[in-house]
Design goal:
It is a single chain. The chain has 365 residues and is an all-alpha fold. Helices cover 75% and strands 1% of the residues.
């Protein structure tokens, strides 16, 4: 029997309806990248250039544009929301392409289960972004000549203005955190897992937004580098563990544990130092209201370190409890097989004695 050929445009059972949920999930990268291209194409036309520039380019320049020797400085403003929206869409497209053409293919070759595959793709796709945050901060500090003079960051804190590279960096960081919320839908996160993820993303977003709005961007950039470095180690360990190489992941977990403790202490110390540096400024340099806003952000950041440290202790205790349970179960299994082996040996000995007694009886007869 010859099957009839599929006519052009004819839908099969596997083809989702246009703009259905499955259609959006399968074509998220194409749809979002097309929207980004439409926004960027507005730069080509004079009528839409100003509007498109608000989405693509850094806004709120505060310097004298007629002076070529003056360094360009930028402040925060309403147009930053447009940039955050545009680059959040761009991150969604990058995330989808990364998952489809890299992590998903590797996961299929490893023949991972559904649960391991979800963990593998989640941690694997996040790891390059965290590494990019660390590398981007290093590039900004090198370009602004701050890498060899980190103590000067408190001279610019709180910052009413910031260089273009630093502002662009922070807009990208905020856009990355914002894009994580819709990414849960595209990654098909289970409903029971969403509350924990939303809390985690919000715990990122609140101090990051607070630091950006209050001008704590210089010390907060160092804090981001410290935190994201540990996150890269954690994500790498989880990826190796999800790939089925638990023995290779254990040394990385130990390194991450040490780095996590050091990072929490370093961030807490940097937060306290920043608070006292702000407190030492005069009323002309820093208003009372600005100081209170900065103090609230620093207090939230310090509280977050305490919370993360408490969660880490709970995690380590649960790991030890699980390790004890596994060791106890292994010991019971070893005892069971040892008893089984001894019972088999006794039964074999009894059968041999029985055969010997029977042979002796037959010999006497």
């Amino acid at each position: 029997m010859v099957k009839s050929a599929k006519r052009p445009g004819q839908k099969t059972e596997k083809d989702p309806f246009i703009f259905s949920q499955e259609y959006l999930l399968q074509n998220q990268a194409d749809l979002v990248s097309s929207l980004c291209l439409i926004i960027m194409s507005g730069l080509l036309f004079k009528a839409t250039r100003a509007l498109s520039a608000k989405f693509c380019m850094v806004q709120h320049n505060t310097t004298n544009l007629t002076d070529p020797d003056e360094k360009a400085m930028y402040s925060i403003g309403r147009a930053d929301n447009c940039m955050i929206l545009f680059y959040a869409l761009l991150f969604i497209a990058i995330h989808a392409v990364e998952n489809e053409y890299f992590w998903e293919k590797i996961g299929r070759r490893l023949h991972l289960s559904k649960t391991r595959m979800a963990e593998f793709m989640d941690q694997g796709s996040t790891m390059p972004f965290m590494a990019a945050i660390v590398a981007g901060a290093g590039y900004v500090f090198v370009q602004e000549d701050l890498i060899y003079n980190l103590t000067s960051i408190w001279d610019h804190t709180p910052a009413d203005e910031m260089p273009m590279l630093l502002k662009f960096y922070w807009v990208l960081v905020i856009a990355f955190v914002v894009h994580q919320y819709p990414e849960m839908y595209f990654m098909r996160v289970k409903n029971e897992d969403m509350p924990d993820k939303i809390i985690g993303y919000t715990a990122y977003l609140i101090p990051i937004l607070g630091a950006y709005l209050t001008g704590l961007v210089y010390p907060a950039t160092i804090i981001l580098v410290i935190h994201c470095t540990t996150e890269v180690l954690k994500a790498l360990s989880d990826v190796i563990e999800s790939a089925g190489h638990g023995d290779k992941a254990q040394p990385l977990y130990k390194i991450w544990s040490v780095a996590f403790i050091l990072a929490r202490n370093a961030i807490a110390a940097l937060t306290v130092v920043t608070f006292f540096k702000l407190r030492s400024k005069s009323a002309d340099e820093l208003s009372q209201f600005r100081f209170l806003c900065c103090s609230v952000v620093l207090l939230i950041l310090l509280g977050l370190q305490l919370y993360l440290g408490w969660k880490f202790v709970q995690t380590v205790l649960s790991w030890r409890h699980q390790a004890k349970e596994v060791a106890l179960a292994q010991k019971k299994a070893d005892n069971f097989w040892q008893q089984r082996k001894e019972a088999n040996k006794e039964a074999k000995k009894a059968r041999a004695e029985k055969r010997a007694a029977k042979a002796a009886v037959e010999k006497e007869d």
